[in-house]
Amino acid sequence: MDYVAALLLWHAAAGAIPAQPRSIPAALLGVWWVASWVAQSFAAPLLLAALAVAAFAWHDGDVAGVLMAAPAAVLFAFVHLRNRRAARLLLRAMGLADRVPWSAGMWPIVRDDPRVRRIADLSYGDHGVRNRLDLILPVVPPAGPMPVLVHIHGGAWITGHKRQQARPLIHHLAAHGWMVADVNYRLGPRDRMPAMVTDVLRAVAWVREHAAEHGGDPARVAVTGESAGGHLAAMVALAHDDPALKPGFEQADCSVVAAVPLYGRYDMLDRARRAGRNHAALLRFAAARFMPGSPDATWHAMSPMERVRADAPPMLLIHGTGDILLPHEESAAFAAALPDATCVALPGIEHAYDIAASAATWGHVRAVRAFLDRHVNG
Fold this sequence. Notes:
CATH architecture of the largest domain: 3-Layer(aba) Sandwich
Number of strands: 8
Shape: globular
Structural class: alpha/beta
CATH class of the largest domain: Alpha Beta
CATH topology of the largest domain: Rossmann fold
Distance between the termini: 55 Å
Largest sheet: 8 strands, mixed
Number of helices: 11
Strand content: 5-15%
Low-confidence stretches: none
């Protein structure tokens, strides 16, 4: 029981402390992120678990167990309340009523939504499973053509797969009359930039060409993504007409009417050194795993910050200030450089907060839908 109590306390502490990428050595970033993400994503049920462990420890006269489990319960309660605050911030940012139901976040495991259906593994390119996408559609289609959202998964450009991320958002939008294209793309280290950007641009071109066949509106296409996918979503929005990134489909229309990049990397060179002591380690990781060697012109070309343009589509950027993997200040700086962008900073919230159905995610899906409805359907 003491082991369980200690594990709960470790996760609770990691979830409650808003660490930064520069806070701890690079080798420990992943370990901290796992503990923090679990605590924030499952704060409500872990609160109940910590209370149960504390009660059992009290009954057994286990003082050490009580002294670990009880503080863990307090910290999980704090984290859950902070998730609810993040939801309210997101709702207010989009002009929505900021009432969050008590049940939000009580069951964070994402289940399939019976209101939506999936058309799986449609090929959009020549690179096998990495060039396939799924279409997620409402079971009962709306009367007219559906707006379309292209979703690009994260995973540090080296891992990840469609169907793994943003399921709360994808299901929410599809259930409310959207078509969502969930996209795979090539990954490092086998493939290097700009292969990933080329793939997602090709996927957008495919969606614009084929959306009508499935009830979608090719004139109303938006894009979103998380982490590495946030970077790629920003590149789609800003580099859609760069022929160097579109070999063999240079004339295809890859433009989008709105973009929602989430907690992404927007300057591959980290020129402001927001990663602090981990600046050099993160550049070495990029060079070894997904970028073409040492920093050169390609690094600049793959940085959305270098691609800012006056005709950029409206963007909504969201980033937690407790993100241990990517500095939240980079999202704010990128948004400030764009002509029409809203950046919402979520106090203390961790990287990949929107994968599970926490209280923060409850507000997230409704805020993103409001933004997209305003700029895609408005």
